[in-house]
């Protein structure tokens, strides 16, 4: 027979279950704003029946476990999308910055300076015997040189900045992988799923994938293994993380390479990274900015060399001095993509003419009114073969102004395309985030219903106890 | 399709679209404030390049226009100088005809010779005209006074002609060397040499040699014709310059028109976009506040 005493415990069991349920609900509500939190629910199951005489009677409820609404497919899609968005977002922001550096408007800018310089040449060629237009020419040439140098320096600063950020990001990656590995240990040592720890680990994994593309593998014992995306480089193993390293690359202006110990040998894996903010930053540092710098270098080298070659044949206003340089000479290096490296960073008026407008050689005969060389210099504006675009030390493209316009619009197209990609990936990320929210996030309406549900259960179980109590009292009273 | 919408999906969507609307609004405001549709290359890379190209062309045009302006003002001075020389030669011609007349006596011829010498000096001084600090008739040696020796009439300049660029492919001579003006194609001492001619006339007048004066009369006519030829040459060059300048002006108007089509914002359109955007934002705020107001917790005891 079932004793009344045991019924007390049945009631208590119900109260406990309701309390646990309330607790889970309370926890959900408390974490409504927690990033990466997956809503939890208490999984209840009826206890095993007990033989009572000829009957099998229920013995109450068991809380089997607290489960979390989490879907591996959705989680991994989110991780993947986070890495892609991280890459495109970082690239877009940085390209925007780059476009800002090259900003051009109605009053300032490299194109403006270049126009002023050529106007100065035209004017000086029209009135070669006068000092005023020569002075004007020197001013405009010097401001063009300054403009080139300062844009170039900004690009170099941005490149150096990207480099330091790569180092910082690698440190962040290492901190994250270390934390994930330590969570792995804690999670695997528990008997039941420690949902909050698993959520925390998931949050860290997403932070990690924002920085660098990763593949996440679910192993036994709730452990995750993390590889760099599409590679065999394990950065989080079952219980320990392998930190990425940085080392100076002498072949790349002493910028940092990212390294991984492959079979114990420190190996440069910079080019093996896929997506994430690190790849975008590396791409800026090693591809986008150098390409822009190269174009400025080509422009500056073409300008220096073509102007100087003509200017050396010109005779100054004194009718005798010749062979002078207009800009400080720049000698191209051996053929190769960087043959003009640094030209835009150093372009300046030569000491032959700086501050001495009468030393500008515009005359071919020595006569003050002769402007033969001046005209040839002015015609450089329209010349179509003045820039070496492919690093073979042969002038093959032009004109100066068109080359620079091409540079600007190339950059503009890159920014435009990257903005589109960023928008598209943001939309995709939002979609995945919504899918994840649908499944995992807390809904207050739902929790309100559960709250009421467990409240009622609690009240009913309490009532049950009070009924048993009353019956027990009645029996005791009968014995009197 | 699950019907489960979590608490902050709404909020996230709202924040996203609201931020987007605000970005759009900012962009529209930028267009309205700057009056331009294309402010950076990334706004429209292709149009941006065309606009830059046109700006360059405009600058080139204005440079060439400026050169033309400089030349026109120089041509003006050259033309009036040549006119003055021609007028002087006309007077010389009148005087020579008077001098050749047998009725004049030796005294009369002396007076005529005196006036002719004055005219001679006047012509030399005209040939030494300076404009903006440079000698107009000394070839490209513009710092050298071309006719320093009034007795010999020797030329100290050179015979070079400076070419000025009036378009990317065309140049135009900016000066007439002094030896060409004074001596003509035949060079110093030739039949058409103005200075030599006047000196000869003076010599004959002082010598009372009327046949000698008469033999020089055809030279005078020849020389005046030659100077008229020079004046006509300058005139036709002036016409060409003015034409070019008109062309540049028309071209500039066309270019600015095209550029404006490419670059400028359509204000009516921008403002209506702004209004649409405002309406959209209003709707976003209203709907979001309606959603935020509503939760089951309000209805449960």
Please explain how this structure is put together.
The complex is a heterodimer of chains A (480) and B (301). Chain A contains ten helices and ten strands. Chain A has 480 residues and is mainly alpha-helical. Chain A has two domains: 1-69 and 458-480, no CATH class; 78-398, no CATH class. In chain A, α2 runs parallel beside α5. Chain B has 301 residues and is mainly alpha-helical. Chain B is 67% helix and 3% strand. Chain B has seven helices and four strands; from the N terminus they run αααββββαααα. The longest helix of chain B is centred in the N-terminal third of the chain and has 56 residues, at 45-100. The radius of gyration of chain B is 39 Å and the shape is rod-shaped. The relative contact order of chain B is 0.14. The interface between A and B is large, with 61 and 55 residues.
């Amino acid at each position: 027979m079932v004793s009344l005493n045991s019924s007390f415990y049945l009631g208590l069991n119900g109260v406990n279950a309701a309390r646990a349920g309330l607790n889970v609900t309370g926890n959900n509500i408390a974490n409504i704003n927690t990033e990466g939190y997956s809503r939890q629910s208490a999984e209840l199951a009826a206890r095993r029946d007990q033989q009572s005489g000829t009957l099998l009677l229920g013995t109450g409820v068991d809380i089997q476990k607290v489960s979390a609404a989490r879907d591996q497919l959705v989680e991994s899609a989110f991780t993947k999308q986070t890495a892609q968005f991280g890459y495109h977002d970082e690239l877009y922001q940085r390209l925007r910055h780059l476009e800002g550096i090259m900003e051009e408007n109605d009053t300032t800018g490299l194109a403006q300076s270049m126009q002023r310089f050529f106007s100065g040449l035209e004017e000086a060629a029209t009135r070669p015997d006068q000092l005023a237009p020569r002075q004007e020419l020197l001013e405009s040439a010097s401001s063009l040189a300054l403009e080139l140098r300062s844009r170039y320096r900004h690009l170099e600063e941005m490149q150096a900045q990207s480099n330091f950020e790569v180092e910082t990001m690698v440190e962040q990656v290492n901190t994250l992988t270390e934390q994930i590995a330590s969570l792995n240990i804690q999670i695997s040592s528990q008997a039941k799923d420690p949902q909050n720890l698993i959520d925390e680990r998931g949050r860290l994994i997403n932070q990690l994938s924002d920085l660098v593309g990763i593949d996440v593998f679910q192993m036994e014992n709730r452990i995750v293994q993390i590889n760099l995306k599409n590679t065999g480089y394990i950065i989080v193993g079952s219980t320990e993380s392998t930190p990425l390293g940085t080392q100076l690359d002498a072949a790349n202006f002493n910028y940092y390479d990212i390294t991984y110990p492959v079979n114990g040998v420190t190996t440069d894996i910079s080019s093996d990274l896929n997506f994430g903010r690190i790849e975008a930053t590396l791409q800026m540092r090693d591809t986008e900015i150098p390409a822009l710098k190269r174009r400025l270098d080509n422009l500056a080298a073409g300008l220096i060399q073509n102007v100087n070659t003509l200017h050396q044949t010109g005779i100054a206003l004194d009718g005798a001095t010749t062979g002078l340089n207009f800009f400080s000479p720049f000698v191209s290096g051996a053929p190769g993509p960087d043959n003009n490296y640094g030209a835009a960073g150093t372009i300046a008026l030569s000491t032959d003419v700086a501050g001495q407008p009468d030393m500008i050689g515009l005359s071919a005969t020595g006569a003050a009114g002769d402007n033969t060389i001046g005209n040839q210099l002015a015609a450089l504006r329209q010349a179509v073969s003045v820039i070496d675009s492919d690093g073979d030390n042969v002038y093959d493209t032009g004109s100066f102004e068109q080359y620079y316009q091409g540079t600007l619009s190339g950059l503009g197209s890159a920014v435009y395309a990257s903005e589109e990609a960023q928008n598209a990936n943001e939309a995709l990320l939002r979609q995945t985030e919504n899918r994840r929210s649908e499944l995992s996030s807390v809904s207050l309406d739902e929790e309100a219903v559960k709250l009421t549900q467990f409240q009622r259960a609690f009240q009913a179980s309490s009532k049950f106890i009070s009924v048993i109590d009353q019956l027990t009292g009645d029996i005791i009273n009968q014995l009197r | 399709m699950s019907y489960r919408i979590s608490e902050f999906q709404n909020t996230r969507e709202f924040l996203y679209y609201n931020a987007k609307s605000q970005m759009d609004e900012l962009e529209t405001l930028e267009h309205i404030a700057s009056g331009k549709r294309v402010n950076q290359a990334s706004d429209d890379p292709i149009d941006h390049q065309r606009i830059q190209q046109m700006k360059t062309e405009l600058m080139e045009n204005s440079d060439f226009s400026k050169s033309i302006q400089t030349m026109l003002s120089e041509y003006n001075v050259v033309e009036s100088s040549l006119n003055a020389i021609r007028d002087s030669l006309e007077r010389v011609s009148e005087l020579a005809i008077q001098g050749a007349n047998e009725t004049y006596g030796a005294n009369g011829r002396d007076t005529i010779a005196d006036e002719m010498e004055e005219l001679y000096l006047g012509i030399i001084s005209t040939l030494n005209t300076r404009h903006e600090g440079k000698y107009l008739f000394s070839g490209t040696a513009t710092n050298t006074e071309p006719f320093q020796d009034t007795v010999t009439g020797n030329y100290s300049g050179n015979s070079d002609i400076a070419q000025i660029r009036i378009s990317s492919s065309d140049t135009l001579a900016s000066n007439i060397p002094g030896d060409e003006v004074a001596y003509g194609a035949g060079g110093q001492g030739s039949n058409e040499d103005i200075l030599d001619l006047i000196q000869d006339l003076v010599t004959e007048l002082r010598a009372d040699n009327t046949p000698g004066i008469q033999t020089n009369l055809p030279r005078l006519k020849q020389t005046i014709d030659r100077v008229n030829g020079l004046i006509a040459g300058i005139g036709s060059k002036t016409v060409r310059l003015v034409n070019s300048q008109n062309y540049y002006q028309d071209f500039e108007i066309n270019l600015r028109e095209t550029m404006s089509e490419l670059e400028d914002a359509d204000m009516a359109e921008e403002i209506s976009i702004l209004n649409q955007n405002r309406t959209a934002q209003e709707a976003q705020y209203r709907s979001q506040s309606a959603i935020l107001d509503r939760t089951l917790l309000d209805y449960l005891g």
